[in-house]
Amino acid sequence: MKPIKTISLLCGVIFILMLGTSVSLAQDTARPEGWDDYSHSNDTDPVYDVVFPQDAVNTITITFSPENWQAMQADMTTLFGEFGTRRGRGDSMGGQPPMGDGPAPPNFDPNQAPPDGTGGQPPMGDGQPPPGGGGGFPAGGMDFSAENPIWVNADIAFNGQTWTNVGFRYKGNSTLTGAWGSGSLKLGFKLNFDRYEDDYPAIDNQRFYGFDELSFSSNYRDSSYLHEKVAADIFREAGVPAAQTAFYAVYVDYGDGPVYIGLYTAVEAVEDTVIQTQFADDSGNLYKPEGTGATFQAGTFDEDTFSKETNEDAADYSDILALFDALHADTRTTDAETWRTNLEAVLNVDGFMHWLAVNTVIQNWDVYGTMAHNYYLYNDPATGLLTWIPWDNNEAFSARGGGRRGGGPTAGLDQSSANATWPLIRYLMDDPVYKAIYDTYVEETAAGAFEQTKVEATYRALHELIAPYVLGDGGTQAADMELDSPEIFEESLTVMIEQSKQRQMVVQEYLSQ
């Protein structure tokens, strides 16, 4: 009997220990107060009407601990130099008007926790055309920090609910360096709702109405605040895969209460829900190319250029290499039919020509053809083809890049200024079959998604919608931190409308030839 009693006692002790452990785990993983499965869990499909409303401006408040806030500012100083030390200098693209002062929020001292002095603003590129002459800025783009800003955790308040320990980091290239250097805290940023789930098990698989990631564009250098949103909407309406967008009034609390930063455009993350909702299968390779290899010039392939956003652990770039091989095959000049067949076996050529047509009609210069970035390539498992997805449209409705340098995809609808530096444009436009596809999409875009009376009505409606969040309402709503003047904002509507009219005339002239 004694051994039996001993065994029973041991079992009882083990049971109590297991019970205590399970209680402790349950306490560690208890959901935060206010957690709602519909709004917070990954069991909900993306709720676009809530996160991306088309007829309303959402409001969010981002709350940082003082330690995290100072860590971010110190990191930015290390990466990009002292806050506000490049006021009035403009960017490296030439001809940029002096930037606004962009006053910091009250009591803000970006150097309260100074870095070790190893930072500083890296020299920017000279903006000269690549070797060989022709089209645009250096193939690798301008010089920016090799590192992204750091991630920190923050709390997000929206519609009376809170999401805790959400990943936050600043993002952007020229928009980030320019705004920081001009002394503005209205910086682009990203949110990742479950980035810190390992540190905080209670938020395991946390979502924002079905969305894991969101990107927020600051509308930098866009006095209309419409470029990012309207361009993405036009792409999608035309039939080109593109992210959903919506306007957000953003408040930041870093210890002294919420401060209104300004009106942002929230942009759907391609790797999160764009490939999930706009493609039949989201399991394919998604790339975000940037750098010299992203021009697709012969011999420039580099794995680092083609950042993998999905299937990161699989070191397989055979689909990208196949595109390089097909694009630069000798048959391009000796057997065009074979060249087209092999190219269409790896690239959604129709989709690329569709993007190129829409992009050129609306004028969007900070893209392939001028800069080697701002696009994704998705290997769609349903077709086995790499599909072009546009990204970062804040420079849309402007010919600034291509027009000033004499190159790029907005310098002319005939694409005559694009040389072999940008072979996806030059080689395909030189082929009469593909040029005919392009011309068809140019005509369809002008008559459809970018039809002048329709886009003018859109501009007017959105301008009226966002005006209180840009200008302030004279009461509870403050003005946007980056507002240069009420007059410039009001004039921007006229500029947008006139640009759409001019583009219609350019299209008709091109098609008549």
What would you say this structure looks like, in words?
The chain is an alpha+beta fold and 513 residues long. The protein has 2 domains: 43-276, no CATH class; 280-447, no CATH class. It is built from 16 helices and 11 strands. The chain has helices at 2-28, 37-40, 48-51, 66-80, 174-182, 227-238, 270-277, 318-327, 331-334, 336-344, 349-362, 400-405, 423-430, 432-447, 452-471, 486-512, and strands at 57-63, 152-158, 161-170, 189-192, 213-217, 245-253, 259-268, 286-289, 306-308, 375-380, 385-390. α11 packs across α14, α14 crosses α16 and α15 (452-471) runs antiparallel to α16.
- Which strand-content bin applies to the residues? 5-15%
Overall average residue pLDDT: 85
Radius of gyration: 25 Å
**Shape by Cα distribution:** globular
Poorly predicted sequence stretches spanning 5 or more consecutive residues = 1-7, 13-27, 88-143, 401-407
Q: What is the tally of helical segments?
A: 16
Strand order of the largest sheet: 1-2-3-4-5-7-6
Span from first to last CA?
104 Å
**Number of E-type strands:** 11
Comma- or semicolon-separated keywords:
2 domains, globular, disordered N terminus, 513 residues, single chain, four-stranded antiparallel beta sheet, 16 helices, seven-stranded mixed barrel
Can you describe this structure in just a few lines?
This protein is of the alpha+beta class. It has 16 helices and eleven strands. The chain is 38% helix and 14% strand.
List the helices and strands and how they pair.
Blueprint: H1 2-28, H2 37-40, H3 48-51, E1 57-63, H4 66-80, E2 152-158, E3 161-170, H5 174-182, E4 189-192, E5 213-217, H6 227-238, E6 245-253, E7 259-268, H7 270-277, E8 286-289, E9 306-308, H8 318-327, H9 331-334, H10 336-344, H11 349-362, E10 375-380, E11 385-390, H12 400-405, H13 423-430, H14 432-447, H15 452-471, H16 486-512
Parallel strand pairs: 1-6
Antiparallel strand pairs: 1-2, 2-3, 3-4, 4-5, 5-7, 6-7, 8-9, 8-10, 10-11
Helix pairs in contact: 6-11, 11-14, 14-16, 15-16
